[in-house]
Design goal:
alpha+beta; 2 helices; single chain; about 100 residues
Length: about 100
Amino acid sequence: MSEDRKFKFENGQFINRVSGEAIPDDEPVILFRARDWHSLGLLRMYRGMVDDEHHKQAVQDRIDEFQAFKTNNPDRMKEPGVTRHIRLNGEEPQP
């Protein structure tokens, strides 16, 4: 898996590669995969909201990587939620 440039996953925690700080267990985190049809649009919207030019470039770099994945792997793209394996409101996940 291509690793995130800002964070690494180590000992069950996401760690900031620069500061060494872990994301606290009580802070929600979400992960978007390149195969998700909506991830590119989301990243493009986010880039438009970012003011810091350095961070904006980092987002653009990830957009480029997601676009390359989409171009090179059209058969792996999917609508999110097609596989109902996420537990919602205490319900058991579905296969």
